[in-house]
Amino acid sequence: MAKIGKRLKAAYEGVDVLKHYGVAEAVKLVKDGAKAKFDETIEIAVNLGVDPRHADQMVRGVVGLPHGTGKTMRVAVFARDAKAEEATAAGADLVGAEDLMEKIQNGEMNFDRVIATPDMMAVVGRLGKVLGPRGLMPNPKLGTVTPNVTDAVKAAKAGEVQFRVEKAGIVHAGIGKASFSEEQIAENVKAFVEAINKAKPTGAKGTYLKGVAISSTMGAGVKLDIAALVG
C-alpha cells in the first residue's frame, strides 16, 4: 500500500472523505487548506453518468464564471484587415492569418485560447493536428469561430471557461484562485455546475451528476452535496 506523504496527510486533516459537504463549508475547507507559497488554483471535478465514446453522450460547452478564473488568458486570433484591428483593440495577444499559422507550425504556442473569424477557417483547419489535441481548435459551438471577435476576446480575457468530458466521464476545470473570497469561489462553483447541468446530452441515461468535488492545487479533495448544490 502506498504511503501518504506528510503534506497530503496534513491537507486531509479536518476533511471527512466520506462526507458530502454543502458548498459554503466545502469552499471554506478547501480555502483554509490552500497553504502553498503560491496562489493555488481552485479546481473542480464533476463525475458524469455518460459514455463520451457515443456522440449523443458528449458533454462540451463554455461558461462565463461570475468572478473569472484568476488566470491571465493569452488569446490568439485569426483575422484579417478590419477584424484583425478589432481583435487587437479588444486586447488579443496574437493576431494574424497565414503568418500566425506559420508561427504555430514552428512551435510558437504561447496562448491559451484561439479565436477565428469564419473566413479564416480554411487557414486554421491546416493546424488541426496541432491545435486539436490541445483542445485549442476554434469551434462555432464554443463561440470561438465568430465574426464578433471583440466579444469573443473580451469573454476569454474575463475568465470564460471551456469544458469537455474526458474518456472516463469526468470534467475537470480551474474555477478560481485561493486568494478569492469564499463567496466568489462558491458562486463560481455553482455557475460551473449549472452549466454542466444545462449541457446534459440527449443520450444520457440514469443519474447524470454522479459526483462533484473541489480542491486546491496542493490540497485535499472535498466532496459536495449534489442535492443541495442543484436543488
TrEMBL record:
Q: Please give the subunit comment from the record.
A: Part of the 50S ribosomal subunit.
Q: Which gene codes for it?
A: rplA
Checking SUPFAM superfamilies in the record gives: Ribosomal protein L1
Q: Give the matching PROSITE patterns.
A: RIBOSOMAL_L1 (PS01199)
For this chain, the family text in UniProt reads: Belongs to the universal ribosomal protein uL1 family.
The organism that produces this protein has a lineage beginning with:
Bacteria, Pseudomonadati, Pseudomonadota, Alphaproteobacteria, Rhodospirillales
Q: What is this protein called?
A: Large ribosomal subunit protein uL1
Q: Name one GO cellular component term.
A: cytosolic large ribosomal subunit
User: Which PANTHER family does the entry link to?
Assistant: 54S RIBOSOMAL PROTEIN L1, MITOCHONDRIAL, LARGE RIBOSOMAL SUBUNIT PROTEIN UL1M
Q: By its UniProt entry, which CDD domains does this protein fall under? A: Ribosomal_L1
Q: Which organism is it from?
A: Terasakiella brassicae
Q: What does this protein do?
A: Protein L1 is also a translational repressor protein, it controls the translation of the L11 operon by binding to its mRNA.
In its UniProt record, a GO molecular function of this protein is: rRNA binding
Q: Which UniProt keywords apply?
A: Repressor, Ribonucleoprotein, Ribosomal protein, RNA-binding, rRNA-binding, Translation regulation, tRNA-binding
